[in-house]
UniProtKB/TrEMBL annotation, chain A:
Organism listed in the record: Caenorhabditis remanei
Protein name in UniProt: Ribonuclease P protein subunit p20
UniProt cross-references to InterPro entries, sorted A to Z: Alba-like_dom_sf, Pop7/Rpp20
Main location: cytoplasm
Region of interest called Disordered, as start-end residue ranges on this chain: 1-35
From TrEMBL, chain B:
Organism field: Caenorhabditis remanei (Caenorhabditis vulgaris)
Domain (POPLD): residue spans on this chain: 421-513
Residue span of region Disordered: 662-682
Keywords: Nucleus, tRNA processing
Residue intervals of the POP1 C-terminal domain: 562-770
Protein name: Uncharacterized protein
Nucleus in keyword set: yes
GO terms under cellular component: nucleolar ribonuclease P complex; ribonuclease MRP complex
Domain Pop1 N-terminal: 102-172
Cited PANTHER family: RIBONUCLEASES P/MRP PROTEIN SUBUNIT POP1, RIBONUCLEASES P_MRP PROTEIN SUBUNIT POP1
Entry-linked Pfam families: POP1_C, POP1_N, POPLD
UniProt-annotated location(s): Nucleus
Major subcellular location class: nucleus
Feature: compositional bias, Basic residues: 664-681
Length: 131, 776
């Protein structure tokens, strides 16, 4: 993987005179069997959804977590796996997601920068074990 | 034997002479009416009305009024002039009446007086409630779905709105962009400009900042050959004020002989709505992919790079595009994609969605803004009839026509939940075709009400309904007040909300910002009135101060009349409404919120004049009964015993003869009527006195201290938020009151109390500053 240089040499900026707008990260897929865990996700209720997906519609689901919610995504994946008690297996993969921020200077409007942030991510592939 | 019937004496004989003599007059009248020479024999009416009535009855036939051949030959010449068919044409068939081409001509309602029709009007009018607003007929809400469906789709799918009612001003002058910058306030913009992007500006009357707000506008600046042109999109409500300011500032004069409204001076020309273009707003994560599926791109070398860019970012619109980025496309006639069941197959392009500074390397193909280029396509447009004829005769349908339509896409990526997406600009004759094409790809159409709701869900202000100081905002406030007052006074007096006597709400249907800010400013009088703070840097500073990082600066403490836009997040109960009041919580309130956030805090009527908590409320004492009875005046009790009345036995067994006697009965009724009229009049006068007294009291009261808790601001929009699952509101508070609420923390967030104008309950809410510029 190529290493991308950020456009701004320093990542620091003055928060009082600059406004940072984060663009949403790219989603690997928009299919209904991809579940994205955020900091606001309720694990318990999401587990039910995942169970229903695995029971009724799909043979495999993908769970994605990013940054602060990596831990939560893993907890969630383990919870689903435990509920199925061995009939579901999991593969775990980690990756890095490139996020883009727009930094708008409130003083000088002709100046604007985009900044790249690298955020760790985890992807869990849950699938029915062939018995 | 029937006893009750009175015995009537039947006469034994009649003296005919006497009998007739007594009735001579009426018999003469009767004879005059019927035994008349002018009448046809056997007819009683005065003169025949139709030709058929001239005939004796036995010669009359069915349908004589419609077919002259039913008449005897001798009468036909005369009868022809009386036939109905000559006067009334047959109504055209339903099919013919509903033909789109006819609707516009037939009804001809598209006038500025009754509201101008947008190009999608006929489509909308079949499915939406249409309302007249800002001189246009605009779709308000769908008859088919509520706004939740729209909100759901704007989060997962794609929603479209017709925003063609926005006015497009074309300003032609050397260095037009910098000339327009005199109106735009830099500190309020919060969006950087880079190359040929569309930017949202905040317009002020020059040299009047911070007063003289006009409204938000979108500037489309062009480079290269057309660099002397700027297109300014503004809301139609703010158009008069902007034009006035523009004419005054540049001393423009109206051009008389032109097809559009045009204003001119030696170096500058301003034309209004001359471009004949429509503007659609698509929002939702799938906006570009839905658009991709519903258009056919033209294989054109000069547009190749733009098309490749469009195809590569279509799936990841928000992560790869800057706010305001513009894409120029050249497409086939949108009707060519109407009949397709599956999405179109476009050529596969390499994914360069993350390409840095794509626009910097590719010059924009801004031919769209050259009018001849657009009109060329419009001229080549096939008529509907021709198109469908050709389409039916080919196996795959029509794939390409001579008309190559240029369109503009403007990416909206401002981080607003339900509003981000893309704006499409297309020349008018093709607008409806594109609209239908998008509809067939499953894009949900929505109206004005949904737009308002979407703004509230995204927690941003909606211009002009939520605006406080621009002329457009004041106009909409006045209209709202008029509507609400009419509705209020149409209610019976005992069903009206007692805003002042029971709830201590001084202004239930208006804001009166000037008075409120005057009450709060330290100086004795502030003649300039209230203004809203739109300086983003200052708002950011206030927000960080509220979080407790520093002290409030001088500019906040001494800013007389400054209002700060805030968003309110309810964390307990409460469903905020427009015209609600934002108040300062007392210390007891803060403690009680910490103990139980749902505890009810009540505004008491002024008589008792101190607020108490419901738990501490003591049982009513006997002395209060009288007063409470007074208060209950006019209310209908549900208690069965209360409506029981002792009835006199005499009334029950009144003599039947007395009731039979009509005169007595009538007199009795009339007397009762008179009595009740008198009573009503007295009651009305008494009520009027009370109202006047209340009005006096209300006028005297200080706005700020009119209720138990000090009022610091008002709610301009509020609702139970679907996304948050809690009440959410947007309002303005006085900047001078900020230091007083800054230390009211609950879980590290600043707390205020909010009360609706029709309620006595105060609800706690977290307050944060809106640090985003208003956009259209």
């Amino acid at each position: 993987m190529s290493i991308r240089m950020s456009t701004t040499p320093s990542k620091r900026f003055d928060e009082k005179t600059n406004d940072m707008r984060r663009r949403p990260p790219v989603k690997p897929s928009g299919d209904p069997n991809h579940i994205y865990i955020t900091r606001k996700t309720n694990v318990e209720s999401q587990t039910k959804t995942a169970e229903e997906l695995l029971n009724n519609a799909f043979d495999e689901i993908f769970i994605h977590g990013m940054g602060a919610s990596v831990n939560k995504a893993l907890v969630f994946a383990m919870e689903v796996e435990r509920k199925f008690g061995g009939s579901v297996k999991s593969d775990i993969q980690t990756s890095t997601v490139q996020c883009t921020d727009d930094i708008v200077s409130l003083l000088d409007l002709d100046q604007s920068e985009t900044r790249h942030r690298s955020v760790s991510a985890v992807h869990v592939h849950l699938y029915r074990a062939s018995s | 034997m029937d006893v009750s019937r009175p015995i009537i004496e039947k006469p034994r004989f009649i003296a005919v002479e006497k009998f007739v003599e007594a009735r001579t007059n009426s018999i003469a009248q009767l004879l005059k009416a019927i035994d008349n020479d002018a009448l046809v024999s056997g007819e009683v009416t005065k003169g025949p009305r139709t030709a058929a009535q001239r005939l004796p009855r036995h010669m009359r036939r069915r349908a004589m009024a419609y077919d002259v051949r039913r008449f005897p030959r001798t009468m036909r010449g005369f009868a022809e002039s009386h036939l109905i068919s000559k006067h009334a044409k047959k109504c055209p068939s339903r099919f013919a009446r509903r033909r789109t081409a006819n609707t516009r001509n037939k009804f001809g309602r598209s006038t500025s007086k009754k509201g101008i029709w947008l190009s999608t009007h006929v489509w909308h009018a079949k499915r939406f409630r249409m309302i007249q607003k800002w001189g246009f007929k605009i779709a308000d809400r769908s008859f088919q779905r509520g706004f939740r469906a729209v909100l759901r789709d704007s989060n997962r799918n794609c929603v479209i709105r017709d925003r063609s009612y926005y006015t497009c001003l074309t300003i032609m002058s050397t260095d037009a962009y910098s000339k327009m910058s005199a109106f735009s306030q830099k500190t309020c913009r919060g969006q950087s400009s880079r190359g040929e992007e569309e930017e949202c500006h905040q317009l002020y009357v020059p040299d009047q900042y911070p007063y003289g707000y006009i409204g938000p506008a979108r500037f489309q600046k062009l480079t290269g050959v057309q660099s002397d042109k700027v297109h300014v999109w503004i809301h139609p409500a703010s158009k008069p004020q902007f034009l006035k300011a523009l004419i005054e500032h540049y001393k423009l004069e109206k051009e008389e002989k032109s097809e559009f409204d045009q204003f001119k001076n030696s170096e500058m020309t301003v034309t209004i709505d001359s471009e004949h273009i429509s503007r659609f707003h698509l929002s939702g994560p799938k906006c570009l992919s839905k658009l991709r599926d519903s258009i056919r791109l033209v294989e054109n070398e000069s547009f190749g790079s733009e098309h490749n860019r469009f195809l590569s970012v279509a799936n990841s619109v928000f992560s790869s595009n800057r706010d305001g980025e513009v894409l120029y496309l050249l497409i086939e006639d949108p009707r060519t994609t109407w009949d397709r069941k599956t999405g179109l197959k476009h050529k596969v392009v390499s994914d360069d969605s993350t390409a840095e500074d794509w626009r910097g390397n590719n010059k924009p193909k801004s031919e769209f803004w050259i009018r001849e280029f657009r009109e060329n396509a419009v001229g080549k447009r096939m008529s509907d009839a021709d198109f469908h004829k050709q389409n039916g005769s080919r196996i795959g349908g029509v794939v390409s026509t001579e008309a190559k339509v240029p369109i503009v896409l403007i990416i909206r990526n401002g981080g607003l939940k339900a509003l981000d997406g893309v704006d499409i600009i297309i020349s008018e004759p093709f607008a409806k075709d594109l609209w239908v094409s998008l509809q067939r790809r499953g894009v949900r159409a929505s109206g004005l009400r949904d737009e308002y709701a979407a703004h509230l869900e995204s927690k941003t202000l909606y211009f002009p309904l939520d605006d406080v100081e621009s002329e457009a905002g004041k106009e909409s406030e006045a209209a709202m007040k008029k509507e609400l007052t009419e509705k209020y006074s149409a209610k019976p007096h005992n069903r009206r909300c007692k805003h002042w006597s029971a709830l201590s709400v001084k202004y239930p249907f208006e804001y009166k910002w000037d008075e409120l800010s005057n009450d709060w400013s330290n100086e004795t009088s502030n003649k300039e009135g209230a203004f809203a703070c739109r300086d983003l840097k200052m708002l950011k500073g206030i927000q960080s101060t509220l979080k407790g990082s520093s002290e409030f600066g001088k500019e906040v403490k001494e800013a007389a009349g400054m209002l700060v836009p805030v968003k309110l997040q309810f964390f307990g109960r409460g469903r905020p409404k427009k015209f609600g009041m934002i108040c300062i919580p007392t210390d007891e309130d803060l403690i009680s919120i910490r103990l139980n956030r749902n505890r009810e805090i009540i505004q008491l009527p002024p008589a008792t004049c101190s607020s108490v908590y419901i738990e501490e409320f003591e049982p009513m004492e006997l002395e209060d009964v009288e007063e409470s009875k007074n208060r209950m005046q006019g209310f209908v009790s549900l208690d069965a015993a209360a409506s029981e009345k002792p009835i006199n036995l005499k009334w029950l067994f009144e003599e039947t003869t007395r009731l039979d006697d009509k005169t007595t009965k009538r007199k009795h009724v009339n007397r009762k009527k008179k009595e009740s009229k008198k009573r009503r009049k007295l009651e009305f006068e008494k009520r009027q006195e009370v109202v006047e007294e209340e009005e006096m009291q209300r006028q005297k009261a200080n706005y700020r201290f009119s209720a138990n808790r000090e009022i610091i601001g008002r709610v301009v929009a509020g609702e139970q938020s679907v996304l948050a699952g809690q009440g959410t509101a947007i309002g303005y508070i006085c900047a001078n009151a900020l230091p007083l609420i800054a230390s009211n923390y609950h879980k590290t967030k600043t707390v205020v109390m909010v009360r609706n104008a029709t309620s006595k309950y105060y609800h706690p809410a977290y307050v944060t500053i809106v640090t985003r510029a208003v956009q259209i």
